Amino acid sequence: MHRHPVTHTWLLLLLCIFVVGVALPLAWALTSITAGDMVITSRLMTFENNIYVARGGLKATQKDTVLTAERGIYDRNLELVKAIDNVEVTQPGSVLTSDYLEAYVKEDRILAKGNPRLVRIVERESRDENGVLTKRKTRVILTCDEVEGFNKENRFLAKGNVHVIEVPYREAETEEEAKANEKEPLSDLVCETLELFSLEDKAIARNNVVIVTKTLRATGDKAIYLDRENRLIIVGHAHAYQTSRESPGAEEQVSELYANKIIYYPNEDRTIAVGDVRATVYPKGAKGPGDSKDQKERKKKKKKEAGDGEEGKAEEPAAGKPADQTARPDQATPRRRGTPPPLAERRSTPPEGLPPGDYTPIGDDAGEPGTIDATADE
């Protein structure tokens, strides 16, 4: 019986297809292991001395948290997962990215290093001028040197060069649109350490705190933000500038505050100062009688009179002191941060950082301009 050679060719071809079809799924099969209640999977994983090394991508799932990275290591003895390169941790309402991350399985704790960035979507409620309740979503973006997450406590701790901005949240915005949106934040916070409590919607910033919004610039040693109460509390050498209007059509004015505690309500754009309060109001665009030309002449006259007065004082030694013991400007005692400057400094020119415009301190020339003293507690 004669057999056609083509038959053998087709049989070999079918056999090759079958072998390749079986081999491909095996080559790309995922390897899964468990670490406590965490499930770790990878396309390529090796095991030696109770240490798993994942080189074909890493994915770890624990409850509602998903961790992904390009590669990673799991030490079964220490119950420690190390994720390396393009690390991303996704939780409901937040995404954490970094170059390197350690996950401690027993403690249910993570530590992210290498350009960590935490993004949270927050929904806020506020009332408009008519008292109508409105809701809006914002994106809160945190960057720092390292961030630690305590999942059992629903708490994050950011350390080193902490910077937080809040921007409007827009559905389906592109990456370019998101970056452009971050250039004009609704609020900006800088500090050394920051604690975030997710369930309580509370944040505590510590050490060299600087807060900037559209109408407020505040500094202090510590700031506590209570989102549900729409309240920001600044303590420890609290100092703030706030831009406001007495009525919708009135000129803007800037208030400078020193107090033991400054409370700011963002949605209402309202500030309360408590304890040893000292305040100065600088009306923007305020002018005296006459036009701008008369105002310039008055400024020149005051400057000349001030110069003549200083020359006269320079000729006479300070009362009760010999001439060689007269205080010099370069011997001035340094002023501690957060304490009010001397009257002469505050009266001469408005402080730096105010919006552009002409400013005139309010108050009697015989006393301190626009100063309010109080010692009441909240």
TrEMBL record:
<protein>
    <recommendedName>
        <fullName>Organic solvent tolerance-like N-terminal domain-containing protein</fullName>
    </recommendedName>
</protein>
<feature type="compositionally biased region" description="Basic and acidic residues">
    <location>
        <begin position="305"/>
        <end position="318"/>
    </location>
</feature>
<feature type="region of interest" description="Disordered">
    <location>
        <begin position="281"/>
        <end position="378"/>
    </location>
</feature>
